[in-house]
TrEMBL record:
GO terms for biological process: oligosaccharide catabolic process. It comes from Glycomyces harbinensis. GO terms for molecular function: alpha-amylase activity. It comes from the Bacteria. CDD domains: AmyAc_OligoGlu_TS. Coiled coil: none annotated. Residues 11-402 form the Glycosyl hydrolase family 13 catalytic domain. SMART domains: Aamy. The lineage of its organism: Bacteria, Bacillati, Actinomycetota, Actinomycetes, Glycomycetales. Belongs to the glycosyl hydrolase 13 family. It holds the Pfam family Alpha-amylase. This is Alpha-glucosidase.
Length: 531
């Protein structure tokens, strides 16, 4: 079986992972030094958020040069060594490709500014003499004006001009970029905003009801999303990827609620997999979670691609915080979310076992394995996310889930590297350092390490089927063949477990005098069952 069908993939947000040169910003040297940690964690692959040369206006999703590494991260040689070293540690490497937009410092955009209205240089982007009514995903208008009076389109920050994917040079350039990195041995690409590249011809205004604040909830095809021509791009790309042999893959970042439209990207001649973001929008509620799982499996029954499961990433409020609330609806970040962290952590432990027991691939965002919460009280001057700026602080932005990892020690920067991290870490994180958790068999890290090891060894936990077991309301119980069950208790009371031997439990099981084990509330267990 190909590795990506059931891989556990760890997302490295490089600038917050580990700092090797002491400047407070994570880098390739830091990552390299922590490869043994990742190997011992038991993941199969790393997905690295963009590492390219970038002014970092959007954490590197604003690329100035797709063939160079940002100096704050290291050099091209460091990247090549990292790929080799990761492989030596048994870890595949997926890199992020950002094709919807460049940075405004990219050579093409600078040339477009210089060359002026009507020039061929401007045709690689969307320049017009007047804007339309589209809004940026980060808030405010999706158009900015340049000195000569023309406007250019940016679906994200003004520093991220959208490329014109109708232009043959744009298409050819990205094929060449893919080749550049494939030749350096990467095992795959995560495609940023994969459904958006192509825009409707003429860039027509949107109907009024589609204009407004950016919303993660909108999953509909539109003039700037899910155009049919985008599929041609991925067919081209797939031919290129496959020509390099090996077992490489594409994972699409596709925010589309309509399962049929989502599934159209998952074809033997397009993308291998895509993130399933449904858990991000789902409450900690048995019925809601079960509906998400059923819907996901139904979608994937129609395509050859395996499902994937995502609890957190660098764009959303961390799930230990989300689950510490009763209303864990997808996460507006508009306000500081009061959250019961003890409850959230218990549920995050259970959610880890749930997501790792489901069929297909699973993502772990760095820090999930430490149970890190969202950080709300960052000083305003430390915040870097353009979402915070563009919404005038109405939306706190995504810095709170990007705070550098605590590796060890008793005080910030917790051995992240250097004297201080680029975003300040809370003092309470002394309880959550990797070093401390390694020594504690009951820690989140120990749970992740055990569960990932069992998941890897357990044949039943691949990309096969699953079957719901009968259970009381509020309990999710399912079986994976052969003889492996997962039970999650979302009721408010202990529930008796089916017969079997517990393999991994997110909380201590109560064993009654009669010998039957009971699962406490907000906990999950993996069981070896009889057959
Ligand atoms: O537009 C959306 C929903 O309809 C958003 O979810 C959007 O797809 C998402 O925010 C895209 O995120 C990715 O691209 C951004 C970058 O800031 C994020 O960090 C990245 O994950 C722009 O490159």
């Amino acid at each position: 079986m190909t590795w990506w069908r059931d891989a556990a993939i760890y997302q490295v947000y490089l600038r917050s992972f580990a700092d090797g040169d002491g400047d407070g910003v994570g880098d390739l040297a830091g990552l390299e030094s922590r490869l043994p940690y990742l190997r011992d964690l038991g993941v199969d692959a790393l997905w690295l958020s963009p590492w390219y040369a970038s002014p970092m206006a959007d954490g590197g999703y604003d690329v100035a040069d797709y063939r160079a590494i940002d100096p704050s991260f290291g050099t091209l040689q460091d990247a090549e060594r990292l790929i080799g070293e990761a492989h030596r540690h048994g870890l595949k490497v997926i890199i992020d490709i950002v094709p919807n937009h460049t940075s405004d410092r990219h050579a093409w955009f600078r040339a477009a500014l210089r060359a002026g209205a009507g020039s061929p240089e401007r045709e690689r982007f969307h320049f017009r003499n007047w804007p339309n009514n589209w809004q940026s995903r980060f808030g405010g208008p999706a158009w900015s004006q340049v000195d000569d009076g023309q406007w250019y389109l940016h679906l994200f920050d003004a520093s991220q001009p959208d490329l014109n994917w109708d232009h043959p040079e744009v298409r050819a350039e990205f094929v060449s970029i893919l080749r550049f990195w494939l030749e350096r041995g990467v095992d795959g690409f995560r495609i940023d905003v994969a459904a958006r590249l192509v825009k409707q011809e003429g860039l027509p205004d949107k109907p009024d009801e589609h204009v407004g604040l950016p919303s993660f909830a909108d999953g509909k095809p539109a003039a700037d999303k899910d155009r049919p021509e985008v599929h041609e791009i991925y067919r081209d790309w797939r031919r290129v990827l496959d020509s390099y042999g090996g077992d490489r893959c594409f994972v699409g970042e596709i925010w589309l609620d309509d399962p049929d439209r989502f599934a159209r990207y998952l074809r033997p001649d397009e993308l291998h997999t895509a993130f399933n973001f449904a858990f991000l929008k789902c409450a900690w509620d048995a019925g809601a979670l079960r509906a998400v799982i059923d819907r996901t499996l139904a979608t994937h029954a129609t395509v050859s691609a395996p499902p994937t499961w995502v609890l957190s990433n660098h764009d959303v409020t961390r799930h230990a915080t989300r689950y510490g609330r009763e209303d864990t609806e997808f996460v507006n970040r508009l306000h500081h979310l009061p959250s019961d962290l003890e409850l959230g952590t218990r549920r995050a432990r259970a959610a880890a076992l749930l997501s790792m027991a489901l069929p297909g691939g699973v993502y772990v965002y760095q820090g999930d394995e430490l149970g890190l919460p969202e950080v709300f009280d960052l000083p305003e001057e430390a915040r870097q996310d353009p979402v915070f700026r563009r919404t005038g602080g109405l939306d706190l932005g995504r810095d709170g889930c990007r705070v550098p990892l605590p590796w060890g020690g008793e005080a910030p920067p917790f051995e992240f590297g250097g004297d201080g991290a680029w975003l300040p870490q809370p003092a309470e994180w002394r309880e959550l350092t990797a070093a401390r958790q390694l020594g504690d068999p009951d820690s989140m890290l120990s749970l992740y390490r055990l569960a990932l090891r069992v998941r890897r060894d357990e044949e039943a936990l691949g990309d096969g089927g699953m079957r719901w077991l009968e259970s009381e309301e509020g309990v999710l119980a399912f079986e994976r063949d052969p003889g492996f069950a997962c039970v999650v208790n979302l009721t408010g009371h202990g529930v008796e477990l089916p017969e079997g031997t517990p393999l991994v439990a997110s909380a201590e099981l109560d064993v009654s005098a009669a010998g039957r084990a009971e699962l406490p509330p907000d906990a999950a267990v993996w069981l070896r069952t009889a057959n």
